From TrEMBL:
Alphabetized UniProt keyword annotations: Flavoprotein, FMN, Monooxygenase, Oxidoreductase
PANTHER family, sorted: ALKANESULFONATE MONOOXYGENASE-RELATED, C2H2 FINGER DOMAIN TRANSCRIPTION FACTOR (EUROFUNG)-RELATED
Pfam families for the chain: Bac_luciferase
Biological classification of the source: Bacteria, Pseudomonadati, Pseudomonadota, Betaproteobacteria, Burkholderiales
Family: Belongs to the NtaA/SnaA/DszA monooxygenase family.
Naturally occurring in which organism (per UniProt): Herbaspirillum robiniae
Name by which UniProt lists this protein: LLM class flavin-dependent oxidoreductase
Luciferase-like domain mapped to chain residues: 24-386
Length: 432
């Protein structure tokens, strides 16, 4: 089983009530020590990696203004840049993988290839990039686009972006650097220009950074459309999803692993990690209390602000006490389809859907003793629903402590999870 941690370098995670949770350290998300505690706890729990989701704008869709999302502290109210944080965390950890989200729509391959090559060097081979194409208007408004690129154009650009970035990471042979006593810095014959000229990018290369320990960062992706899943099957080593139940997990798992072959890859080359928010108690009743305490803080209008941002639609224009109607969204289509299905199954109003979204987007919650939670995780993996999990916290910086001190040892006793890291590089953790 593989374990990752889901983080946002700001006030929320999947849970948009995170910053209001009484156990969360007030404003801690602006301090390095907060992230240090989280990373060291996860490393003590032998997690494969931690990663930061990211977005490049505050929410601007709800009420067509930034004011609501800022006032209530929705999921986009604050996001520090994850890469400098990962650089700092590389210095205080030794094994855990370090992942950051960067957008292919609003970055250039050359600068992005440098950022991740740098992180991979400084961390001794632990860098990961969560590739996103960016869906919302707020981001377009911050980067000079009238509107977001059309869906398939975003993925065409992303495909070419990945080709260019990989060419840059390969532009130095691992043997190129000499640092020879005779004054020879590198073997220039082993460093090649890439001379890429495509529809979206023109890049001469080579990179100005020697080959890094992993050669390239581990690629993570979370697309859910047809095109997005093909992109994932072609490029990703880790795929991250949110699915609320076992049948949906199994469907996603089978579909994505099936696509791998189309791109000459083996199903085991892609690890599918599914999001879950655990509540670990001394008893089941205690765990339920913890879950209720967290969920009681979830405010429907905060959830609808985040939903508006994710779906690129102004949900303030719809009645709160009616079911979600036939709204057309241009944002995260897969997640919206899921929300509509769940709303229909449970007969939810828009306000209920907002509350659910605020609790944790649509991340399933599991409450129980350490043994109960371990049972649930093992069951999903045994039934072909996932290769592991993305653990989502309800509060921070101590929100992983009970999982690491209770569930991880339980999984280790059962032989379901590593007791020690075998290697120092993230790709080695994922292969083990
Ligand atoms: C679980 C999950 C996590 C995601 N994290 C991010 C993120 O951090 N930043 C972002 O811009 N998009 C994020 N996305 C959006 C996806 O990367 C992708 O852009 C979106 O699903 C739309 O692609 P699609 O049309 O292929 O579904 C996430 C999506 C899912 C389902």
């Amino acid at each position: 089983m593989h374990l990752a941690a889901f983080l946002i370098a700001g006030n929320a995670a999947h849970s948009q009530a995170l910053w209001r949770h009484p156990e969360s350290r007030r404003g801690g998300f602006l301090e390095l020590d907060y992230y240090r505690h989280i990373a060291q706890t996860l490393e003590r729990g032998k997690f494969d990696l931690l990663f930061f989701a990211d977005r490049l704008a505050v929410s601007t869709r709800y009420g067509e203004s930034h004011r609501h999302g800022i006032a209530v502290g929705d999921q986009d109210a604050t996001r520090l840049d994850p890469l400098p944080i990962l650089g700092a965390l590389a210095a205080v950890t030794r094994h855990i993988g370090l992942g950051a989200t960067r957008s292919t729509t609003y970055s250039q391959p050359y600068s992005l290839a440098r950022e991740f090559a740098t992180l991979d060097h400084l961390s001794g081979g632990r860098a990961a990039w969560n590739v996103v194409t960016s869906v919302n208007q707020g981001e377009a408004d911050n980067f000079g686009l009238k509107e977001t690129l059309p869906h398939d154009v975003r993925y065409d650009r992303a495909d070419e972006f990945l080709e260019v970035a990989h060419k840059l990471w390969r532009s130095w042979s691992p043997q190129a650097l000499h640092l020879g006593a005779g004054g020879r810095y590198a073997d220039a014959a082993l460093v090649e220009a890439i001379d890429h000229h495509g529809a979206h990018f023109s890049v001469r290369g080579p990179l100005n950074i020697p080959s890094s320990p992993q050669g390239s960062p581990v690629i993570i992706q979370a697309g859910s459309s047809e095109r997005g899943q093909d992109f994932a099957a072609r490029w990703s080593e880790v795929v991250f999803n949110i699915q609320p139940d076992l049948p949906r997990l199994q469907r996603f798992y089978g579909d994505l692993k099936g696509r791998a072959e189309k791109f000459g890859r083996r199903p085991q080359d892609i690890k599918i990690l599914s999001a879950v928010m655990p509540f670990v108690g001394a008893s089941r009743a205690h765990a339920e209390e913890l879950r209720e305490q967290a969920n009681a803080l979830a405010d429907p209008l905060v959830g609808l602000s985040t939903l508006s941002s994710h779906m690129n639609v102004d949900f303030s224009a719809y009645a709160l006490d009616a079911p979600i109607g036939d709204v057309q969204v241009s944002g995260i289509q897969g997640l919206f389809k899921l929300l509509k299905e769940i709303s229909a199954e449970r007969q939810l109003t828009l306000a209920d859907a907002g509350r659910l979204y605020a609790q944790g987007v649509l991340t399933p919650q599991v409450a129980g003793t350490a043994a109960d939670v371990a049972d649930w995780l093992e069951h999903i993996v045994a039934q072909g629903g996932a290769d592991g999990f993305v653990i989502s916290p309800s509060h921070l910086p101590h929100g992983f402590d009970d999982f690491v001190d209770g569930v991880v040892p339980e999984l280790q006793r059962r032989g379901s999870f590593r007791r020690n890291y075998d290697g120092r590089q993230l790709r080695a953790h994922l292969a083990a």
